[in-house]
């Protein structure tokens, strides 16, 4: 029998770009001492501030942040590396108990959040010869047959395409345990007990916010920010500059996009990106028993059209009741 989870309940504030996560986090910081763990694959890059909507210096002074400005453009930063770094940051924050601070996770990069919240599945070493034989066998099957095998070997496997099904088959046959078992072990031994707070707004509201954000970025000097990186020798397709907003500016500076079309190109790409993010959070955040709220759900979907101060008060009230 599994005993009670004694890890701290940690709010994980998620949602698509532009939904208002930073504003809610700042409002929450006015009510209780927190440090924000930024789970954002774009804000890890130094010198890329405007196009990533990085919290400004004033905000970072008022609300401590970890996870910003970690690497130079061009350097890769993985979800696994984030999970390891974030685990250390959270331990440091809680070790400084005299300040009474608690970490909260705020971000839009689902893979970062999953790696931190669900733990890292570290598979045991596989026998190369057996793995190759299994790969050839699975490739000889139809996709539907691979999925059926995955379901037989791992009852928790529901769907996910040929590659995910083949992975489930491989892990089960080569380790003797289903992939879901390994993932559950990692989750139960992970860094935090997550309480997902999914901020949402109607599509038309989000589109207005995104349009205002793109206009603000351009007015703040997004083009000059990109030009500085290129002048410093950063490759046009380097990690960081390949993100939305930056790649459109690079295309314009190289004559592949007109200046008059820049704003709309960024806005269209941002809207598509936000839609993908929201879909990911809606579909991937798992519902599991938790101490949060009367319905004991670990996921709370929140209407973010309301004032950030109101949302922050509701979050704090629920957090204190759930973790008290």
CATH architecture descriptor of the largest domain: 3-Layer(aba) Sandwich
Query: Quick one: biggest sheet?
Result: 6 strands, parallel
Unreliable runs: 1-6, 287-296
Helix content: 40-55%
Q: Tell me the fraction of residues in β-strands, as a range.
A: 5-15%
* Domain module tally: 2
| Helix-strand topology string | EHEHEHEHHHHHEHHHHEH
Characterization of the model:
The protein has 324 residues and is an alpha/beta fold. The chain folds into 2 domains: 9-119 and 192-323, Rossmann fold (3-Layer(aba) Sandwich), CATH 3.40.50.300; 128-187. Helix content is 51%, strand content 10%. It has 13 helices and 6 strands. A 6-stranded parallel β-sheet has the order 3-2-4-1-5-6, sandwiched between helices. Helix 2 (57-62) links the parallel strand 2 (34-39) and strand 3 (65-66). Residues 1-6 and 287-296 have low confidence and may be disordered.
What's the arrangement of secondary structure elements?
Layout (H helix, E strand, L loop, with lengths): L8 E6 L6 H9 L4 E6 L17 H6 L2 E2 L12 H17 L6 E6 L2 H8 L10 H12 L3 H11 L7 H15 L3 H10 L4 E8 L2 H18 L1 H10 L14 H8 L5 H26 L14 E5 L4 H16 L1
Parallel strand pairs: 1-4, 1-5, 2-3, 2-4, 5-6
Helix pairs in contact: 1-13, 3-4, 6-7, 9-12, 10-11
């Amino acid at each position: 029998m599994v005993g009670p989870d004694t890890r701290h309940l940690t709010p994980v504030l998620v949602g698509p770009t532009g939904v208002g996560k930073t504003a809610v986090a700042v409002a929450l910081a006015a009510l209780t001492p927190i440090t924000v763990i930024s789970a954002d694959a774009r804000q890890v890059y130094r010198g890329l501030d405007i196009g990533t909507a990085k919290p400004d210096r004033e905000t970072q002074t008022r609300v401590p942040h970890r996870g910003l400005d970690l690497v130079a453009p061009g350097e890769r930063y993985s979800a696994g590396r984030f999970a390891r770094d974030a685990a250390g940051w959270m331990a440091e924050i809680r070790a400084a108990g005299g300040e009474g601070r608690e970490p909260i996770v705020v971000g839009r990069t689902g893979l970062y959040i999953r790696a931190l919240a669900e733990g890292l599945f570290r598979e045991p070493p596989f026998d190369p010869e057996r793995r190759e034989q299994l790969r050839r066998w699975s490739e000889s099957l139809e996709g539907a047959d691979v999925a059926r095998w995955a379901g037989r070997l791992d009852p928790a496997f529901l769907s996910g395409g040929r590659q995910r099904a083949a992975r489930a088959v491989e892990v089960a046959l080569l380790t003797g345990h289903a992939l879901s078992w390994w993932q559950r072990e990692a989750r139960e031994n992970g860094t935090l007990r997550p309480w997902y707070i999914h901020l949402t707004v109607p599509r038309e509201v989000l589109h207005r916010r995104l349009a205002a954000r793109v206009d603000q970025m351009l007015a703040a000097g997004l083009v000059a920010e990109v030009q500085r990186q290129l002048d410093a020798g950063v490759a046009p397709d380097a990690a960081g500059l390949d993100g939305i907003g930056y790649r459109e500016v690079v295309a314009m500076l190289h004559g592949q996009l007109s200046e008059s079309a820049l704003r709309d190109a960024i806005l269209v790409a941002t809207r598509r990106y936000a839609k993908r993010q929201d879909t990911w959070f809606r579909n991937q955040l798992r519902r599991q028993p938790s101490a949060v709220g009367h319905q004991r759900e670990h996921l709370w979907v929140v209407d973010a059209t309301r004032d950030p101060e109101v949302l922050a008060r509701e979050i704090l009230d629920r957090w204190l009741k759930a973790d008290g």
